[in-house]
Amino acid sequence: MIQVDKVNFEEEVLQAEGPVLVDFWSPNCEPCMALLPDIEALEKKYGDRIKFCKLNVVGNRRLAISQKVLGLPTICIYKNGEKAAGLTGEEASAVGIEAMVREHV
Amino acid sequence: MAASTGMRMYDVIIVGAGPAGLCAALYSSRSRLSTLVLEKARPGGQASTTEWLENYPGFPKGVKGPELMEFFAAQAREFGAEIVKDEVVSVHFSPERKAVRTAKGGEYAAKTVVLCPGAEPRTLGLPGERELRGKGVSYCATCDGDFFTDLDIVVIGNGDAAVEEGMYLTRFVESATIIVVHDEGVLDATAIIRDRAFKNSKIKWIWNSVVDEICGDGIVKSVIIRNIKTNERTEFETNGVFIFVGTVPKTDFLRGAVEMDERGYVATNERMETSVDGVYCAGDARAKYLHQVITAAADGAIAAVAAEKYIHEEEGFREMVLEPASPVMVCFWSPASRESLDFMASVERIAEARAGALVLVKIDVYRNRRIAGRYGIKSLPTLAFFRGGQIVHKVEWPTTEEEVVAAAEKVVGRR
Ligand SMILES: Cc1cc2nc3c(=O)[nH]c(=O)nc-3n(C[C@H](O)[C@H](O)[C@H](O)COP(=O)(O)OP(=O)(O)OC[C@H]3O[C@@H](n4cnc5c(N)ncnc54)[C@H](O)[C@@H]3O)c2cc1C
Predict the structure, then answer these.
(1) Which of B86, B79, B76 is nearest to B20 (CA)?
(2) Separation of alpha carbons B32 and B163, rounded Å
(3) CA of B239: which chain A residue's CA is closest?
(4) Contact criterion met (CB below 8 Å) for B136 and B240
């Protein structure tokens, strides 16, 4: 997974060609840590069709808020610089995220 | 269930790896029972979503929730418990075999199951609550606290969890306004927590009030607060809304499988036995007085010990009574029943006279209540004759040795 932050978010996510998944997480967020292996597994399965990025909100709080993300875990899919879909909290389960990814590949 | 042949049969399957499940796993694996724990997220449960626990004994200065839960998990693994990451979506219980199916398509079977799915935050169903979740509405302070650095938030709820999490959030936020339905000064939180909160200058209070609505466009902007005494509604600007109004049990996948109350809490007795033999429930998912880490851990220990007893009783009964080809005479007795003690000498004589043709098994109903109940044993002594796993004859409360001799002759013939 590509680590994105306030420096490269524009280039890696907003300017990217094709769909991009962004995992908003933080090391204090237990549910985020629980989800990480599931997302890595999804990258193995779909990584050739959708770019996988993760964004640690610690140190990138303003960026996250500018993306209207104020809660973790949040998993979004961007297309052409726009947020196309997103899941948060309990909805952001391995099964839910896979369904969202399938819709966008 | 065609795929079941050749499938590994565990002694115990534990659903959920919060404090209850991990403690059940510790006890059962330490008793040398083969133990599988299925956890859909990471081990730890709700206890790892709160930063500090001040009321788990053994840690006079408190302990971090995630750290304590890592200890719990490590200790269970130390004795051989296997923890697998998968979600149980359905359960299928029969007397001989308890099976569970998972989201990843797995099926696992065991002799006993301990259900520890715990609970999740209760939502209020306010207008805006669902739409703004993750956009300023939160149920987890440790997850989302960072976002609100130097911002203003409101907290809904006034129990221990709400006030403690509110205080934790004051490390980040400019102000945390707690909206309390009670009169000024009255909280559901315990005195020690209340006093500490009253001294915290970043905590503000709004009394006699409830939140009617959460407003925002993409992210939270304000809440509508209603004073329940005057019914006056005011808009209150805020950046975030943290909701701590209790929890609901995560037992939907168990509907129809075990008895539960109208709120979804699983009914158990003091041994954590559910309405299904060999199936136990421990922790926050169980109907009980106090839902805490320590009581979840205690429940888990009890459930594991009860499961172990169950396995031994059932296996002993099967090997000694149900499986032998030759007839078995079971004497149900109890040390508390004078009649059954007095009659034992006669029973032994009868068995001795038929040695080789009839085996005597004595079952203390006090220690084996479930088996006695299954065969409807009401008076002691009762003699039950088994052949090929079935009761072929029963003598309830015999008063003379002759009655039992007559029954034995019916089963094995005259000597
Ligand atoms: C904010 C907050 C603060 C708290 N503070 C304290 C405190 O200071 N002191 C204290 O003693 N208690 C505290 N508690 C309460 C305490 O956390 C709980 O009582 C305790 O965690 C209950 O343990 P449990 O094992 O029954 O359930 P949980 O901790 O809820 O764990 C259940 C586990 O089961 C998993 N699960 C659920 N369903 C399935 C399924 N179908 N398949 C697989 N896995 C499943 C879940 O993912 C979870 O990991 C607090 C709770 C909260 C929310």
Answers:
(1) B76
(2) 42
(3) A70
(4) yes
Q: Which residues of A touch B139 (CB under 8 A)?
A: 89
**Neighbour-count burial for B27-56, b at 16+ CB within 10 Å, e otherwise:** bbbbbebbbbbbbbbbbbbbbbbbbbbeeb
> Residue B368 — pLDDT band, cuts 50, 70, 90?
confident
Residues of A with active-site annotation: 29, 32
pLDDT band at B62 (very low <50, low <70, confident <90, very high): very high
Ligand 1 pocket mutation, candidates B37, B38, B46, B243, criterion most atoms within 8 A of CB? B46
**B383 in contact with ligand 1, CB cutoff 6 A:** no
**Looking at the domain covering A2-104, what would its CATH class be?**
alpha beta
Whole-model pTM? 0.89
Q: Residue B363: in which H helix or E strand, if any?
A: strand B359-364
Looking at chain A, list the stretches that DSSP marks H as alpha helix, in order from N- to C-terminal side: 9, 30-46, 61-66, 94-103
Q: Chain B: give the shortest CA distance to residue A49, in Å.
A: 22
Cis status, amide bond into A31, omega within 30 of 0: no
Q: What is the ipTM of this complex?
A: 0.83
- Residue B343 alpha carbon to ligand 1 centre in Å: 52
DSSP annotation string for B103-165? TTS-EEEEEEEEE---EEEPP---TTTTTTBTTTEES-HHHHGGGGTT-EEEEE--SHHHHHH
**Do B314 and B111 form a contact (C-beta atoms < 8 A)?**
yes
For chain A, what are the domain ranges? 2-104
Rounded Cα gap, residues A43 and A56, in angstroms: 18
Q: How far is A79 from chain B (nearest CA, A)?
A: 19
Q: How confident is the model at residue B49 (pLDDT cuts 50, 70, 90)?
A: very high
Q: B268 to chain A nearest CA, in Å?
A: 28
The full length of chain A comes to: 105
- Residues of A within an 8 Å Cβ radius of B: 26, 28-35, 37, 57-58, 61, 64-65, 68-74, 86, 88-90, 93-95
Contact criterion met (CB < 8 Å) for A70 and B144: yes
